[in-house]
Amino acid sequence: MAQPVDLVVVGSGPGGYVAAIRAAQLGLKVAVVEKEHVGGVCLNWGCIPSKSLLRNAELVSTLKHADEYGISFSNLQLDFSKAIDRSRAVAARLSRGVTYLLKKNKVETIMGTASLRDAHTVEVAPEGRVLTAKNVLIATGARSRSIPGVQIDGQTVIASRQALEMRQLPKSAVIIGGGAIGMEFAYVWHAYGVDVTVVELLPHLLPNEDEEISQQLERSVQKMGLKFHTGSTVTGIEKTSIAVTLKVKTSEGEKSVSCEKVLMAVGVGGNSDGIGLERVGVAVERGFIKVDDSMATNVPGVYAIGDVTGKVLLAHVASAQGVLAVERMVGRDSPSLSYQDMPKATYCSPQVASFGLTEKQAKERGHEVKVGKFPFTASGKALALGESDGLVKLVFDANTGALLGTHMIGPDVTELLAEASMTQLLEGTGQELGWLVHSHPTLSETLKEAALAADGQAIHI
Fold it and tell me: With CB atoms 3.0 to 4.6 Å apart as the test, which of 2, 107, 172, 184 could cross-link to 132 if both were Cys?
């Protein structure tokens, strides 16, 4: 006999579990179907364990420069397997926390693989349990993809998931893709002594960021000894029992790059297959489920959120989509999401954070712009931390003073982004951000100074 509920959520990642809890808060009877680990890829094999490893890498980097702080020691030993152990423990703790939150909110968690019989019926394998619901929410995420001629084999060519399980690092590695995932792993591995080369197809590392920020990142990583080829394509691969050789087409001609491991970090494909979407008639385009502003598909009663929609592939976007979807389901007039203004964060060193329009995009869209910049070399707190690479760049509409975009590279800038985002949300201007008194010395003062600089009023530069 089928079990009736109000909502079935397929997938318990940061989109699925947040949607389930919000739906329960709104009075719905909810069941979540998860085929592997509660918390999804982000919590178990992505965002959380990778940030744990990045913290280890930061500590290792500091220890390698301990003499700058008047600290000396000998026989420094680095055990990467212990870093992996710590990352797994952090992920496991959070997964247990999500399991508890679902239970606390009376959301039933069912382990198994979901498949849609129709728009309101979900079957769970292998036990054959059947759920019926007014609405079904697909939150199945995405998986790493390969490029032509270079396939992920899980051994010599790996994806981020295998990288997060790897207890012994190679002596050398090539990372294909200079986006957020690629640069975060590049920083971790380089800190632990791996000879890392990054190959990026587009003209700059972190190609979706403001060009000036990407160029600053390239200078910073070059200074630390990390190698990269931008505007370059991997055209072939040769494997032996001990090494991999990649053929890389660069602006300077074809080069051969040899290494022990290759990490594929060129993006993801949606997990839209094998769940019965074709049986129900849900529209899918290039592996991603098509949705409207309410996260509804073309089939009434079926919604989708998160990476499987291909919108903005970030955990916090999935969570926001999940809340929006269930609130629209129950008839709430919740505001649509602005994907342009979603915050982005990359946790390499120096960190990179941004939202909104780049300077180039703002001009292309017809804005008359004014730009305020402030370097971390002029920040007392950054100098005290010993991390002064980078800058804050704010893009304003010259006529209205509206904040169009924030672009930062430097120490802990991922924690500074919320202030700028709130300024934009509340329709604040650069003048108001510049007026706000910030405590001293803090990194956040750079935002104030950059806002003042847009009108030529910066004090400390």
Answer: 2
